[in-house]
Automatic annotation (TrEMBL), chain B:
Gene Ontology process terms (BP): mitochondrial respiratory chain complex assembly; protein import into mitochondrial intermembrane space
Taxonomic path: Eukaryota, Metazoa, Chordata, Craniata, Vertebrata
Name of the protein described by the UniProt record: Coiled-coil-helix-coiled-coil-helix domain containing 4a
Entry coiled-coil feature ranges: none
Region of interest (Disordered), ranges: 103-135
Cellular component GO terms, alphabetical: mitochondrial intermembrane space
Length: 642, 135
């Protein structure tokens, strides 16, 4: 650890020095496609004159006709060739334009520098709604609007690589992590990511947290957020210039990562090592990763309730869902969130905060007794629910939805116990259905307990096929078979899959963690199996003003909580806040540690308003020991200190 | 120290004061094996090689200038010169040339700390061995 520190510190100035400020416009010459029309040689025949005058005349006529005929043929052929070559040049140049725009689909913030590929002109305007142009014209990218035009999705695919050494199906967090891992370990690796989303790989947590707290009115376009210290970042992992064009993947000297957006893999031939896309293109691979994630679960009652209800319902997961919900939240009077887990509670808190300015009514309903009822022990779940209420959310607990109807432009939610809730819009956050569409064609096993593709401890499903992220049901050699739907797990498993695809044979060993912030007073980090049905032991201290998520970010200097555990970022020393008087209240679960036990072994830990101590928690889980006195274990966390 | 038991009997709750936790812990932890092949090794592998997959390198080894970066850094790492890396000027120059083509990936940070997500960032005090990268 120290070595890394010193080496990195020494190296960092060198690296910084080497990326200078001067922007060189690198323009490679566009493809030279002038085809010189080949000349059709005109056949000339010469014979010796045969006979007399009459014959001579006939002969002259014959030769003349032949000559005229050949000349005409030559002219017609030349004309045709010319037309074809002109058309071909047009074809190729528009295809180049289209595929360049195809890749550079992120918001225009990233278009500031002309890329190494010859691009017609950099996009300067914020991405506007695409006015569906004819296929041949250079269209502004359809991808940013989330609605790929018909032209783009049927763009000729025979220019795409027919073979790629590394094929990653799915363009989310796990896939990106794998791509990076492969590139780091296999010099010059060529990686092709195929995603049915129109966006380049991005991170999901800010969609239900930081993006809602941004002051920037154009946040739905830029998808960037400013942290408290002014540090801005995009939700996209990398700007478009990081990636290369799929068409250029084969010829790229040092390899690279190419992303094929708005294309779905519909069929997988495992014996032939190839896949088929929804436009019938076939791509063969050497190694393949399935990182297809999942789609939000819907409720049957909603599905049965008809078009008018579904029109007013959001199943929240992607960038387009964030954009549409943001728009809805500005135009309606009441939003109801169904679901009391991580996503539901975070959205409720985010919208609840907005409601103080806008007067929006935010309702959250769920079958459990309190927020996070399936994760937190009851006493903590109740305490959390009170905090969520303070964020401006109307909580309806122990609520089972019986039916939903649309009357007079309002939604009426009928609960099984007779209560009726009238609202304008519903957000369903009731879980994730892992995407196992390819299981049938690929002959891959699906797990009946947890869902998802069944893989071994090294994330392998079959030879040459790995699965990572939300869709992977894997064997954790410490905690047993499980499927994890958290961001850090996607990163960890994606990296591991990438390592194993490049020859390592490492099992899932580095335990991933997760976190949640429900408002400024309640934040926690967790690791392992955190299930409220397990026996728990909670050790709490009294809270001071220093122990909230806001204070944690200010102290560690990382700005957003998403970063403070998982990303190595610069930490700048921050003056510590003056201690507030301690709150003396025995029922105040201000901060502490909660251990989840299975057969007397700690299998899960929650750090409750106690931050930057995840390594200790990870160690305890890894050891897998039986501890007689968990209070002694709790001492290791120094919960009374910052 | 206050002890409570939840109504169901399943959950124990302990409230501790600072004094309660003053004495050092007697909980036993298993000693870490430095050569554990499964553990994330940090920047340098046990055999002395560079771990290009280290989260601390960000995207440097995997981006468009990845190979130039690897060559330059390898040269620096194995350099035995008086001034470490002094013989690696050519590699650094070609890396710099590559990076100039991608100013939004490798921005120039003149005086302040690197803020780009692709530059190797100074590691914070927590064990980076156990951190996973957010990218």
């Amino acid at each position: 650890m120290l070595k890394c520190n010193t080496v990195c510190k020494r190296f960092a100035p060198l690296v910084r020095a080497s990326s200078t400020v001067c922007r060189q416009n690198v323009r490679r010459a566009g493809l030279n496609n002038v085809r010189t029309p080949t000349c059709v040689p005109v056949a000339r025949m010469s014979t010796e004159p045969l006979g007399g005058g009459g014959d001579n005349l006939k002969y002259a006529l014959l030769v003349g006709a032949a000559f005229v005929g050949s000349l005409t043929y030559a002219v017609v052929t030349l004309k045709g060739d010319h037309q074809r070559s002109v058309k071909r040049m047009e074809d190729i140049s528009t295809r180049l334009q289209k595929s360049t725009l195809h890749i550079q689909s992120a918001p225009p913030v990233w278009f500031s520098a002309p890329s190494a590929l010859s691009k017609p002109k950099p996009e300067a305007a914020p991405s506007a709604e695409q006015s569906s142009p004819p296929p041949e014209a250079a269209a502004p990218d359809a991808e940013t609007t989330g609605k790929p035009s018909a032209a783009d999705s049927t763009s000729p695919s025979h220019k795409l690589p027919s073979h790629t050494p590394y094929l990653l199906i799915g363009g989310g967090t796990a896939s990106f992590a794998a791509a990076r891992s492969i590139r780091a370990r296999d010099p010059g690796a060529k990686v092709l990511i195929v995603t049915d989303e129109p966006d380049l790989p991005y991170m999901r947590p800010p969609l239900s947290k930081e993006l809602w707290f941004s002051d920037d009115p154009s946040v739905t376009e830029t998808l960037r957020f400013k942290q408290w210290n002014g540090k801005e970042r995009s939700i996209y992992f990398q700007p478009p210039s990081f990636y290369i064009n799929p068409e250029d993947l084969d010829s790229a000297e040092n390899g690279g990562v190419a992303v094929l957006t708005s294309k779905k893999v519909v069929h997988m031939d495992v014996r032939g090592n190839k896949v088929k896309l929804d436009d019938d293109t076939e791509i063969s691979y050497d190694k393949c990763l399935i990182a297809t994630g999942g789609i939000p679960r819907s409720l049957q009652v909603l599905e049965r309730s008809g078009e008018e209800v579904m029109k007013r319902t959001t199943l929240f997961r992607k960038i387009e869902d964030f954009k549409s919900l943001d728009k809805v939240s500005r135009s309606v009077n009441s939003i109801t969130i169904i679901g009391g887990g991580f996503l539901g509670s975070e959205l409720a808190c985010a919208l609840g905060r907005k409601s103080t300015e806008s007067g929006l009514e935010v309702v959250q309903m769920f079958p459990e007794k309190g927020n996070m009822g399936k994760v937190l022990p009851e006493y903590l779940s109740n305490w959390t629910t009170e905090k969520v209420k303070k964020e401006g959310v109307k909580i309806i607990s122990e609520a089972l939805v019986k039916s939903v109807a649309c009357k007079d432009d309002k939604l009426e939610i009928q609960l099984k116990d007779g209560r009726l809730v009238r609202t304008d819009h519903i957000v369903a956050a009731v879980g994730l259905e892992p995407n196992v569409d390819l299981a049938k064609s690929a002959g891959l096993e699906v797990d009946s307990d947890f869902g998802g593709y069944r893989v071994n401890a090294e994330l392998q499903a079959r030879s040459n096929i790995w699965v990572a992220g939300d869709a992977a049901c894997f064997y954790d050699i410490r905690l047993g078979r499980r499927r994890v739907e958290h961001h850090d797990h996607a990163v960890v498993s994606g990296r591991l899959a990438g390592e194993n695809m490049t020859g390592a044979s490492k099992p899932y060993w580095h335990q991933s963690m997760f976190w949640s912030d429900l408002g400024p007073d309640v934040g926690y980090e967790a690791i392992g199996i955190v299930d409220s049905s397990l026996p728990t032991v909670g050790v709490f201290a009294k809270a001071t003003a220093k122990d909230t998520p806001k204070a944690a970010t200010e102290k560690s200097g990382t700005g957003i909580r998403s970063e403070s555990e998982t990303e190595d970022t610069a930490t700048s020393p921050v003056a510590s806040a003056t201690p507030a008087p301690a709150v003396e209240h025995k029922d105040d679960y201000g901060k502490g540690v909660i251990f989840y036990l299975r057969d007397k072994v700690v299998v899960g830990i929650i750090l409750w308003n106690v931050f930057n101590r995840m390594p200790i928690a990870r160690k305890i889980i890894k050891d897998g020991e039986e501890h007689a006195d968990l209070n002694e274990v709790a001492k290791l966390f120094n919960i009374h200190e910052d | 120290m206050l002890l409570f038991l939840s109504a169901s009997g399943k959950d124990r709750i302990i409230f501790v004061t600072k004094e309660d936790h003053e004495a050092p812990s007697n909980a036993e932890l298993i000693a870490d094996d430095p050569n554990d092949p499964y553990e994330d090794p940090g920047l340098i592998l046990p055999n002395g090689d560079i771990n290009w997959n280290c989260p601390c390198l960000g995207g440097m080894a995997s981006g468009p200038c990845g190979s130039q970066f690897k060559e330059a850094f390898s040269c620096f790492h194995y350099s035995k010169e008086e001034i470490k890396g002094s013989e690696c000027i050519d590699q650094f120059r070609s890396m710099q040339k590559c990076m100039q083509k991608f100013p939004d990936l490798y921005p120039q940070e003149e005086d302040k700390e690197s803020t780009s997500q692709t530059e190797p960032s100074p590691v914070s005090d927590s064990a980076d061995k156990t951190k996973s990268s957010f990218y």
